[in-house]
Amino acid sequence: MANQHPPISTTGIITPQYCAPVTHAIDLIITKEKTLRDNFTVKDINDNIVFAVKSSLVTIVTPREHRFLFDANGNPILHLRRSLLAADDSWKAYRGESTEPKDLIFTRKRSSLMQLRTKLNVFLANNNTEVCDFTVKANLSGQSWNVHIGESNNVVAQINKKLGTMFSREKFMVTVYPNVDYAFIVALVVTLD
Q1: Residue ranges making up the domain that contains 101
Q2: Which of 11, 103, 138, 152 reaches 20 to 30 Å from 61, CA-CA?
Q3: What is the rounded CA–CA span in Å between residue 45 and residue 56?
Q4: Which one, of 106, 149, 135, lies nearest residue 13 by Cα?
């Protein structure tokens, strides 16, 4: 899907188990299911299921959105949560199904409220500064994004959105560069819509 880039020195953010091999990039296809909830299926290029994302139904009583990332065997990996009342469109990611502060992995939020192009800042849980660890930047059309290390030009993943039609589902074509946690990248992708 994309040109090969030299390995970038990163560690497993969710877990090292999900780091792309040092020798090559990983291509994933994230398909949004046509249901009332925002559910997604994540497959590799050989059509093997890698992850599934299940969402809870949002109600007026609980103005929070929840998405759960499961591995191919149905084990919970990550709980993504956002308040629908927050102006900065922030999502918090926790280990497993937790919402405990000790299990926080990262927070993703808009860099500013007024944007011509989407730019999201990602702060890992141990980051106590105002400097983000990763940024997600959209192109002018808003249909593709690059994930960068901090504010640098070092790209760790590319995301391209393919709009659905009456006969096909919306998809994200994702390339995760070597030595990068692809569970982390998938978690970012399913918070883009």
Answers
A1: 25-108+156-189
A2: 103
A3: 28
A4: 106
Say what the pLDDT of residue 192 is: 87
Task: Look at residue 182 and tell me if it is in a domain.
Answer: yes
CA atoms within 13 A on the CB side of 144: 10
Spans in the chain with pLDDT lower than 50:
1-9
Q: Chain-centre distance of CA 104, in angstroms?
A: 15
The residue whose two tokens read 């040109």 is 3
The amino acid sitting at 156 is V
Residue 56, pLDDT score? 82
| CATH assignment of the domain containing 38 | 2.40.160.200
184, 36 Cβ separation under 8 angstroms? no
Longest CA pairwise span in the chain (Å): 48
Q: Locate 112 and state its tokens.
A: 């500013």
Residue 129, helix vs strand vs coil? coil
Amino acid in the structure at residue 32: K
Q: Which residues, 6 or more positions from 130, have their beta carbon under 8 angstroms from its beta carbon?
A: none
